Target: DUF1697 domain-containing protein
Amino acid sequence: MIFVALLRGINVGGKNKINMKLLKQTFENAGLDNVVTYINTGNIIFSCKGKSKTELANLLEEMIHNDFQLHIKTIVLSLGDFKEIVSAIPASWKNDMNMKSDVLFLWDEIDNESVLEKLVIKPAIDSVKYVPGAILWSADKENITKSGKSKIIGSDIYKNITVRNVNTVRKIYELMQD
Model:
């Protein structure tokens, strides 16, 4: 089965630095196959048989701690899970000079549509949608400083998400299908 591991908060602002070649080796040492990393922010595609997503996330968090002495939260999603999220992203959403569109991947503790009630959403600025496993969030760049998305930082929700822009999410999905 094909999976992706999304690591939270590595190689961001000079913190939690992990070399991708070494991280790939960690995944291979964990018994995972066909390991491919994508960009430096902790996106690792791999195949594995006989382990659940929770078992894989726990194993990878332990292996990363052992190899890098870092406590890095990890979400593991199957190809099917990822397809559902990618399919829910409106085709017009992109991350470019005019638009900022992100996928906020949710840990199980907050993965419920009611999470939207805890967010500051500005309907005239923000387009926000819940899909199991993620919140999809987009705003025009000219209004990005007025967006409610910045209010997530420092909240309880923030500790239980990892964010990727839609361009990255679409590329990960493409790599998972190869």
Notes: The two ends are 13 Å apart (CA to CA). The helical segments are 20-29, 53-68, 79-88, 166-177.
